[in-house]
Specification:
The chain is mainly alpha-helical. The chain has a 3-stranded antiparallel β-sheet. Helix 1 crosses helix 6. It is globular, with a radius of gyration of 17 Å. The protein starts with a helix and ends with a helix. The mean pLDDT is about 80.
């Protein structure tokens, strides 16, 4: 049980870091990364405790993951987060029972940090395409489809049809 609780906390932290823009990260404020997440100062050059706390192994992992997801172009940040959560659910089915809690916690965080409306605006209008297949997952209100072992947000999946 304790392991599951720790897993949920780490999952929340990862998703929270994913949804927070680089320029709102503490590592950005400390001058460690730029607005695009590019590393300006290597970890071994960091001196203060505050700098080291803002750029831990978890931060480096998530920042790298975030850059990879952005390059994949999953149709906006919300689509990216939907695919990230769907990937987590696909890898460990035990998280499915906590999906609503994870989504709720992330949405609450986004609202508290005044990012939620911007995220919705990024997604744009209601899609005008019709996909006649069942999604593999629905995360944050975004349908996520699987094709050839790859997960796609609904916008990106429609482009493959």
């Amino acid at each position: 049980m304790a392991n599951r609780a720790v897993d949920l906390v780490i999952t929340y932290r990862v998703i929270k870091l994913l949804v927070t823009p680089f320029n709102k990260q503490e590592a950005f404020k400390q001058g460690i990364i730029d607005k695009d997440g590019k590393v300006l100062r290597k970890y071994r050059t960091l001196k203060t405790t505050a700098e080291k706390k803002s750029y831990t192994i978890l931060h480096r992992f998530v920042f790298n993951l975030k850059r990879v997801l952005q390059k994949a172009g999953l149709g906006g940040r919300l689509g990216t987060f939907a695919v990230a959560l769907a990937t987590l659910l696909r890898e460990d089915k035990n998280y499915i029972e906590h999906k609503s809690l994870i989504e709720s916690a992330v949405i609450t965080y986004l609202k508290d940090t005044e990012q939620f409306i911007d995220l919705l605006k990024e997604e744009g209008n209601v899609p005008d395409y019709i996909v006649n297949e069942e999604p593999a997952y629905t995360c944050f209100g975004i349908d996520v489809y699987e094709k050839d072992g790859q997960l796609y947000s609904e916008k990106e999946y429609a482009k493959t049809l």
